[in-house]
């Protein structure tokens, strides 16, 4: 069974490329020209999105560098200690909606500090994989198309983040090996 899956995964992309080339040939589409147009459009999109990406990176850097994140984590520490949960997970929960790369860095630190099979390590991994960078996505996508009123997007996105965080906190200790 494993060999079959390996074979399928090795041939999936070459077969897909052959299908695309065959479809283009049948439909008489000039694939190279279409590809070049797509690349040019991608470059324009990247240039258009760069200010929004930079704004998020700067905001996250200021949030961490100012000590605000550490202060909020300090305030939450008694609540987390009451439930025997590592306060470091709170830092991850706060950063995850802002920046995936910052959250990944925190997760890597937690895995190195506590171990991958520890309760904190497993819970951090669940948090990392079960939620989205809501504020990053909203600012990037809504900003790039100049939508001023996001309606309920922010509230619903952050509600989903909170639910994912609470479920991760509940499930992490159940699946950790020690």
Overall tally of structural domains: 1
Poorly predicted regions: none
Radius of gyration, whole Å: 22 Å
H/E element order: HHHHHHHH
Strand content: under 5%
- The first-to-last residue Cα distance is 32 Å
Described by the principal axes of the CA atoms, the overall outline is extended
Helix content: over 70%
Put simply, the count of helices is: 8
Structural class, by secondary structure, is: mainly alpha
Average residue pLDDT: 88
Q: What profile does the largest beta sheet have? A: none
Quaternary:
single chain
What is the number of E strands?
Answer: 0
How is this structure best described in words?
By secondary structure, the protein is mainly alpha-helical. It has one domain (45-175). 81% of the residues lie in helices and 0% in strands. The protein contains eight helices and no strands. 20% of the residues are buried. The model has no long low-confidence stretch (mean pLDDT 88).
Summarize this entry quickly.
The chain has one domain (45-175).
Give the topology, please.
Blueprint: H1 2-26, H2 31-65, H3 68-82, H4 88-95, H5 100-114, H6 119-130, H7 134-144, H8 153-175
Please name the defining characteristics of this protein:
single chain; 178 residues; mainly alpha; 8 helices; 0% strand
């Amino acid at each position: 069974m494993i060999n079959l899956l390996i074979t399928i995964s090795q041939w999936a992309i070459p077969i897909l490329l052959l299908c695309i080339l065959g479809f283009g040939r049948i439909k008489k589409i000039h694939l190279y020209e279409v590809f070049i147009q797509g690349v040019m459009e991608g470059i324009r999109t990247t240039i258009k999105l760069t200010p929004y990406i930079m704004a998020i990176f700067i905001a996250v850097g200021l949030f961490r560098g100012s000590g605000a994140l550490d202060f909020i984590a300090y305030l939450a520490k008694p609540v987390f200690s009451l439930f025997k949960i590592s306060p470091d997970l709170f830092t991850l929960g706060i950063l995850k909606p802002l920046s995936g790369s910052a959250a990944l860095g925190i997760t890597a630190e937690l895995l190195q500090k506590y171990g991958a099979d520890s309760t904190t390590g497993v819970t951090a991994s669940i948090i990392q994989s079960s939620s989205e960078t809501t504020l990053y996505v909203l600012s990037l996508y809504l900003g790039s198309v100049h939508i001023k009123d996001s309606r309920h997007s922010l509230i619903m996105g952050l509600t989903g983040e909170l639910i994912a965080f609470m479920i991760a906190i509940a499930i992490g200790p159940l699946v950790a090996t020690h």
